[in-house]
Protein backbone atom coordinates (compact mmCIF):
# COMPACT_ATOMS: atom_id res chain seq x y z
CA UNK A 1 0.00 0.00 0.00
CA UNK A 2 1.40 3.36 -1.06
CA UNK A 3 1.55 6.06 1.60
CA UNK A 4 0.49 9.51 0.44
CA UNK A 5 0.53 12.95 2.06
CA UNK A 6 -2.25 15.10 0.60
CA UNK A 7 -2.07 18.90 0.54
CA UNK A 8 -5.11 21.00 -0.35
CA UNK A 9 -7.50 23.56 1.04
CA UNK A 10 -10.77 24.50 -0.78
CA UNK A 11 -13.80 22.47 -1.79
CA UNK A 12 -12.18 21.83 -5.19
CA UNK A 13 -9.57 19.63 -3.48
CA UNK A 14 -11.95 17.43 -1.51
CA UNK A 15 -12.91 14.97 -4.26
CA UNK A 16 -9.26 14.21 -5.01
CA UNK A 17 -8.63 13.61 -1.31
CA UNK A 18 -11.72 11.44 -0.98
CA UNK A 19 -10.74 9.40 -4.03
CA UNK A 20 -7.42 8.57 -2.36
CA UNK A 21 -9.09 7.78 0.97
CA UNK A 22 -11.55 5.41 -0.69
CA UNK A 23 -8.96 3.58 -2.82
CA UNK A 24 -7.77 0.25 -1.38
CA UNK A 25 -4.21 0.63 -2.71
CA UNK A 26 -3.47 3.97 -1.06
CA UNK A 27 -3.16 5.21 2.49
CA UNK A 28 -3.46 8.92 3.16
CA UNK A 29 -0.98 9.19 6.02
CA UNK A 30 -1.50 12.89 6.65
CA UNK A 31 -3.30 15.92 5.27
CA UNK A 32 -1.78 19.41 5.08
CA UNK A 33 -4.10 22.39 4.71
CA UNK A 34 -4.22 26.10 5.42
CA UNK A 35 -4.84 27.30 8.99
CA UNK A 36 -8.40 28.02 10.08
CA UNK A 37 -9.37 31.52 8.95
CA UNK A 38 -11.87 34.06 10.35
CA UNK A 39 -14.96 34.46 8.16
CA UNK A 40 -18.14 36.51 8.24
CA UNK A 41 -18.99 39.59 10.20
CA UNK A 42 -18.29 37.87 13.51
CA UNK A 43 -14.90 36.64 12.28
CA UNK A 44 -15.44 33.12 13.52
CA UNK A 45 -12.66 30.71 12.70
CA UNK A 46 -13.60 28.27 9.95
CA UNK A 47 -11.78 25.11 8.99
CA UNK A 48 -11.01 24.43 5.35
CA UNK A 49 -13.13 21.97 3.40
CA UNK A 50 -10.13 19.65 3.19
CA UNK A 51 -9.59 19.72 6.96
CA UNK A 52 -13.22 18.76 7.55
CA UNK A 53 -12.94 15.84 5.11
CA UNK A 54 -9.69 14.66 6.71
CA UNK A 55 -11.12 14.81 10.22
CA UNK A 56 -14.17 12.85 9.10
CA UNK A 57 -11.79 10.11 7.99
CA UNK A 58 -9.63 10.33 11.17
CA UNK A 59 -6.56 11.42 9.23
CA UNK A 60 -3.92 13.54 11.02
CA UNK A 61 -4.08 17.18 9.91
CA UNK A 62 -1.21 19.66 9.74
CA UNK A 63 -1.90 23.39 9.35
CA UNK A 64 1.39 25.27 9.14
CA UNK A 65 1.21 29.04 8.81
CA UNK A 66 4.39 28.79 6.73
CA UNK A 67 5.08 25.32 5.38
CA UNK A 68 8.70 26.21 4.63
CA UNK A 69 9.34 26.67 8.36
CA UNK A 70 7.30 23.81 9.81
CA UNK A 71 9.65 21.37 11.55
CA UNK A 72 6.98 18.82 12.48
CA UNK A 73 5.93 18.33 8.86
CA UNK A 74 9.55 18.31 7.75
CA UNK A 75 10.22 15.47 10.17
CA UNK A 76 7.20 13.48 8.95
CA UNK A 77 8.27 13.69 5.32
CA UNK A 78 11.99 13.14 5.89
CA UNK A 79 11.57 9.79 7.66
CA UNK A 80 11.50 8.01 4.31
CA UNK A 81 8.25 6.05 4.51
CA UNK A 82 6.08 8.50 2.53
CA UNK A 83 5.78 7.47 -1.12
CA UNK A 84 4.18 10.56 -2.66
CA UNK A 85 2.94 14.08 -2.03
CA UNK A 86 -0.27 15.00 -3.88
CA UNK A 87 -1.30 18.66 -3.89
CA UNK A 88 -4.50 20.26 -5.15
CA UNK A 89 -5.02 23.99 -4.60
CA UNK A 90 -3.07 23.94 -1.34
CA UNK A 91 -2.23 27.64 -1.35
CA UNK A 92 1.44 27.76 -0.35
CA UNK A 93 4.70 27.22 -2.20
CA UNK A 94 6.44 24.01 -1.19
CA UNK A 95 10.20 24.30 -0.59
CA UNK A 96 12.26 22.10 -2.86
CA UNK A 97 13.48 19.87 -0.03
CA UNK A 98 9.91 18.73 0.68
CA UNK A 99 9.36 17.82 -2.96
CA UNK A 100 12.37 15.52 -2.85
CA UNK A 101 11.60 13.60 0.36
CA UNK A 102 9.00 11.10 -0.95
CA UNK A 103 10.14 8.12 -3.02
CA UNK A 104 8.01 9.20 -6.00
CA UNK A 105 8.32 12.94 -5.44
CA UNK A 106 5.33 15.26 -5.57
CA UNK A 107 2.55 15.83 -8.10
CA UNK A 108 -0.10 18.52 -8.44
CA UNK A 109 -3.71 18.45 -9.63
CA UNK A 110 -3.96 21.75 -11.55
CA UNK A 111 -7.23 23.09 -12.98
CA UNK A 112 -6.10 24.15 -16.45
CA UNK A 113 -4.61 22.71 -19.60
CA UNK A 114 -1.03 23.67 -18.87
CA UNK A 115 1.05 25.49 -19.93
CA UNK A 116 -1.99 27.79 -20.17
CA UNK A 117 -3.03 29.57 -16.98
CA UNK A 118 -0.36 28.81 -14.47
CA UNK A 119 -1.07 30.38 -11.09
CA UNK A 120 -3.81 30.75 -8.54
CA UNK A 121 -6.91 31.54 -10.61
CA UNK A 122 -6.87 29.29 -13.70
CA UNK A 123 -10.60 28.53 -13.77
CA UNK A 124 -11.56 32.19 -13.46
CA UNK A 125 -9.21 33.16 -16.26
CA UNK A 126 -10.29 30.42 -18.65
CA UNK A 127 -13.90 31.66 -18.52
CA UNK A 128 -12.95 35.36 -18.36
CA UNK A 129 -10.77 35.13 -21.45
CA UNK A 130 -13.41 33.30 -23.47
CA UNK A 131 -11.78 29.88 -23.72
CA UNK A 132 -13.95 27.14 -25.21
CA UNK A 133 -12.38 24.40 -23.11
CA UNK A 134 -10.29 23.89 -20.01
CA UNK A 135 -9.34 20.83 -18.04
CA UNK A 136 -7.08 19.12 -15.54
CA UNK A 137 -3.32 18.69 -15.69
CA UNK A 138 -1.48 16.28 -13.41
CA UNK A 139 2.06 17.60 -13.24
CA UNK A 140 5.35 16.85 -11.57
CA UNK A 141 6.02 19.51 -8.95
CA UNK A 142 9.22 21.50 -9.34
CA UNK A 143 10.59 24.65 -7.74
CA UNK A 144 9.02 26.91 -10.38
CA UNK A 145 5.25 27.39 -10.02
CA UNK A 146 3.13 25.04 -12.17
CA UNK A 147 6.06 24.47 -14.53
CA UNK A 148 6.69 20.76 -14.05
CA UNK A 149 6.35 18.00 -16.62
CA UNK A 150 2.83 16.92 -17.55
CA UNK A 151 1.93 13.35 -16.57
CA UNK A 152 -1.67 13.37 -17.81
CA UNK A 153 -4.32 15.81 -19.03
CA UNK A 154 -8.05 15.74 -19.68
CA UNK A 155 -10.20 18.47 -21.25
CA UNK A 156 -13.83 19.51 -20.80
CA UNK A 157 -15.82 22.17 -22.70
CA UNK A 158 -16.76 25.58 -21.32
CA UNK A 159 -20.28 26.46 -22.41
CA UNK A 160 -21.44 30.06 -22.75
CA UNK A 161 -23.56 30.15 -19.58
CA UNK A 162 -21.44 28.19 -17.11
CA UNK A 163 -20.22 30.06 -14.02
CA UNK A 164 -16.89 29.63 -12.29
CA UNK A 165 -18.64 27.95 -9.35
CA UNK A 166 -20.19 25.36 -11.67
CA UNK A 167 -16.89 24.88 -13.48
CA UNK A 168 -15.07 24.24 -10.21
CA UNK A 169 -17.55 21.44 -9.43
CA UNK A 170 -16.96 19.81 -12.82
CA UNK A 171 -13.20 20.16 -12.59
CA UNK A 172 -13.13 18.83 -9.05
CA UNK A 173 -14.79 15.62 -10.22
CA UNK A 174 -12.57 15.40 -13.29
CA UNK A 175 -9.46 16.04 -11.20
CA UNK A 176 -10.17 13.11 -8.90
CA UNK A 177 -10.70 10.81 -11.89
CA UNK A 178 -7.54 11.88 -13.71
CA UNK A 179 -5.50 11.62 -10.52
CA UNK A 180 -6.52 7.99 -10.00
CA UNK A 181 -5.82 7.25 -13.67
CA UNK A 182 -2.29 8.67 -13.30
CA UNK A 183 -1.10 6.95 -10.14
CA UNK A 184 -0.69 3.33 -11.33
CA UNK A 185 1.68 4.33 -14.14
CA UNK A 186 3.55 6.67 -11.80
CA UNK A 187 4.10 3.95 -9.23
CA UNK A 188 5.07 1.22 -11.73
CA UNK A 189 7.47 3.46 -13.62
CA UNK A 190 5.65 3.58 -16.96
CA UNK A 191 4.30 7.13 -16.77
CA UNK A 192 5.28 9.51 -19.58
CA UNK A 193 6.46 12.92 -18.39
CA UNK A 194 6.09 15.57 -21.09
CA UNK A 195 7.92 18.87 -20.53
CA UNK A 196 5.81 22.00 -20.84
CA UNK A 197 6.42 24.39 -23.72
CA UNK A 198 7.60 27.54 -21.94
CA UNK A 199 6.89 29.65 -25.02
CA UNK A 200 3.17 28.85 -24.67
CA UNK A 201 2.91 29.54 -20.93
CA UNK A 202 0.27 32.03 -19.76
CA UNK A 203 -0.54 33.09 -16.23
CA UNK A 204 -3.58 33.53 -13.99
CA UNK A 205 -2.66 35.61 -10.94
CA UNK A 206 -5.18 36.17 -8.18
CA UNK A 207 -8.01 38.54 -9.13
CA UNK A 208 -7.63 42.14 -7.92
CA UNK A 209 -10.44 44.41 -6.75
CA UNK A 210 -9.92 46.64 -9.79
CA UNK A 211 -10.32 43.65 -12.12
CA UNK A 212 -13.68 42.86 -10.52
CA UNK A 213 -15.07 46.17 -11.79
CA UNK A 214 -16.92 46.08 -15.10
CA UNK A 215 -15.57 48.29 -17.87
CA UNK A 216 -18.62 49.04 -20.01
CA UNK A 217 -16.36 49.97 -22.94
CA UNK A 218 -15.70 46.24 -23.31
CA UNK A 219 -18.01 44.25 -25.57
CA UNK A 220 -21.10 42.52 -24.22
CA UNK A 221 -19.42 39.13 -24.69
CA UNK A 222 -16.33 40.22 -22.77
CA UNK A 223 -18.44 41.53 -19.89
CA UNK A 224 -20.61 38.40 -19.91
CA UNK A 225 -17.46 36.30 -19.64
CA UNK A 226 -16.27 38.44 -16.73
CA UNK A 227 -19.59 38.08 -14.89
CA UNK A 228 -19.58 34.29 -15.30
CA UNK A 229 -15.92 34.06 -14.33
CA UNK A 230 -16.52 35.89 -11.05
CA UNK A 231 -19.77 34.15 -10.00
CA UNK A 232 -19.85 33.11 -7.15
CA UNK A 233 -16.57 34.76 -6.15
CA UNK A 234 -15.40 37.51 -6.21
CA UNK A 235 -18.49 38.79 -8.20
CA UNK A 236 -18.22 41.45 -10.90
CA UNK A 237 -19.40 44.89 -9.88
CA UNK A 238 -20.29 48.30 -11.25
CA UNK A 239 -21.25 51.63 -9.71
CA UNK A 240 -24.64 53.31 -9.70
CA UNK A 241 -25.23 56.55 -7.79
CA UNK A 242 -21.68 56.18 -6.44
CA UNK A 243 -22.52 52.86 -4.79
CA UNK A 244 -21.14 49.44 -5.69
CA UNK A 245 -23.70 47.09 -7.26
CA UNK A 246 -22.84 43.47 -7.97
CA UNK A 247 -23.80 41.83 -11.26
CA UNK A 248 -24.50 38.10 -10.90
CA UNK A 249 -25.96 36.98 -14.22
CA UNK A 250 -26.13 38.31 -17.77
CA UNK A 251 -26.91 37.36 -21.36
CA UNK A 252 -25.44 38.60 -24.63
CA UNK A 253 -28.06 39.88 -27.08
CA UNK A 254 -26.45 38.90 -30.36
CA UNK A 255 -29.30 40.28 -32.47
CA UNK A 256 -29.26 43.80 -31.02
CA UNK A 257 -27.05 46.83 -31.58
CA UNK A 258 -26.99 50.32 -30.07
CA UNK A 259 -25.32 53.68 -30.54
CA UNK A 260 -25.79 54.65 -26.88
CA UNK A 261 -22.87 55.44 -24.57
CA UNK A 262 -21.51 52.25 -22.94
CA UNK A 263 -23.04 51.69 -19.51
CA UNK A 264 -26.36 53.29 -20.45
CA UNK A 265 -29.58 51.43 -19.61
CA UNK A 266 -31.32 51.40 -23.00
CA UNK A 267 -34.40 49.33 -22.09
CA UNK A 268 -36.12 47.58 -19.20
CA UNK A 269 -37.92 44.41 -20.24
CA UNK A 270 -40.49 42.72 -18.01
CA UNK A 271 -40.92 39.44 -19.92
CA UNK A 272 -38.27 38.20 -19.63
CA UNK A 273 -37.29 40.61 -16.86
CA UNK A 274 -33.94 42.20 -17.60
CA UNK A 275 -32.06 45.47 -17.95
CA UNK A 276 -30.57 46.06 -21.40
CA UNK A 277 -27.27 47.92 -21.19
CA UNK A 278 -25.13 49.42 -23.94
CA UNK A 279 -21.58 48.06 -24.15
CA UNK A 280 -18.52 48.65 -26.29
CA UNK A 281 -18.60 48.36 -30.09
CA UNK A 282 -22.38 48.86 -30.11
CA UNK A 283 -23.11 45.55 -28.40
CA UNK A 284 -25.93 44.99 -25.89
CA UNK A 285 -25.89 43.07 -22.61
CA UNK A 286 -28.93 41.91 -20.64
CA UNK A 287 -28.58 41.92 -16.85
CA UNK A 288 -30.79 39.22 -15.34
CA UNK A 289 -29.59 39.09 -11.73
CA UNK A 290 -28.30 42.03 -9.73
CA UNK A 291 -27.37 42.95 -6.17
CA UNK A 292 -27.97 46.58 -5.20
CA UNK A 293 -25.61 48.09 -2.64
CA UNK A 294 -26.47 46.83 0.85
CA UNK A 295 -29.05 44.29 -0.36
CA UNK A 296 -29.24 40.65 -1.36
CA UNK A 297 -28.85 39.36 -4.91
CA UNK A 298 -32.15 39.16 -6.82
CA UNK A 299 -33.53 38.58 -10.28
CA UNK A 300 -34.86 41.60 -12.15
CA UNK A 301 -38.51 40.66 -11.54
CA UNK A 302 -37.88 40.79 -7.80
CA UNK A 303 -35.97 44.03 -8.22
CA UNK A 304 -38.85 45.69 -10.08
CA UNK A 305 -41.58 44.33 -7.80
CA UNK A 306 -39.72 44.80 -4.54
CA UNK A 307 -38.80 48.42 -4.88
CA UNK A 308 -35.16 47.63 -4.14
CA UNK A 309 -34.10 50.69 -6.07
CA UNK A 310 -35.06 52.82 -9.00
CA UNK A 311 -33.37 52.33 -12.34
CA UNK A 312 -34.77 54.02 -15.40
CA UNK A 313 -34.01 54.00 -19.10
CA UNK A 314 -31.21 56.48 -19.66
CA UNK A 315 -29.49 55.85 -16.33
CA UNK A 316 -25.82 54.93 -16.52
CA UNK A 317 -23.72 52.32 -14.77
CA UNK A 318 -20.19 53.53 -14.12
Give a short overview.
The protein has about 325 residues and is an alpha/beta fold.
What does this protein look like?
With 318 residues, this protein is an alpha/beta fold. The protein folds into 2 domains: 2-200, Formyl transferase, N-terminal domain (Rossmann fold); 210-306, Formyl transferase, C-terminal domain (Methionyl-tRNA Fmet Formyltransferase, Chain A, domain 2). Helices cover 27% and strands 27% of the residues. The protein contains 9 helices and 15 strands. It has helices spanning 11-22, 49-56, 71-78, 96-100, 122-128, 164-188, 209-212, 220-229, 300-306; strands spanning 2-8, 26-32, 37-39, 44-46, 61-62, 84-88, 106-110, 133-140, 150-157, 236-240, 243-252, 265-270, 273-278, 284-291, 298-299. The protein is elongated. The termini are far apart.
Strand content: 25-35%
Quaternary structure annotation: single chain
Q: End-to-end span in angstroms?
A: 59 Å
Rg computed from alpha carbons, rounded to a whole number of angstroms: 23 Å
What integer is the average pLDDT? 97
Q: Class of the largest domain in CATH?
A: Alpha Beta
How many strands appear in the DSSP assignment?
A: 15
Annotated CATH architecture of the largest domain: 3-Layer(aba) Sandwich
* Name of the CATH superfamily of the largest domain: Formyl transferase, N-terminal domain
Q: Structural class given helices, strands, pairing?
A: alpha/beta
| Strand arrangement in the largest pleated sheet | 5-2-1-6-7-8-9
Write the element-wise H/E pattern from the N-terminal end onward.
Answer: EHEEEHEHEHEHEEHHHEEEEEEH
Query: What sort of overall outline do the alpha carbons produce when their principal axes are compared?
Result: elongated
When the domains are counted, the total is: 2
- Which consecutive residue ranges, at least 5 long each, have pLDDT under 50? none
How many helices? The count is 9
Helical fraction = 25-40%
Domain Formyl transferase N-terminal: 2-183
Keywords: Protein biosynthesis, Transferase
EC number: 2.1.2.9
Catalytic activity: L-methionyl-tRNA(fMet) + (6R)-10-formyltetrahydrofolate = N-formyl-L-methionyl-tRNA(fMet) + (6S)-5,6,7,8-tetrahydrofolate + H(+)
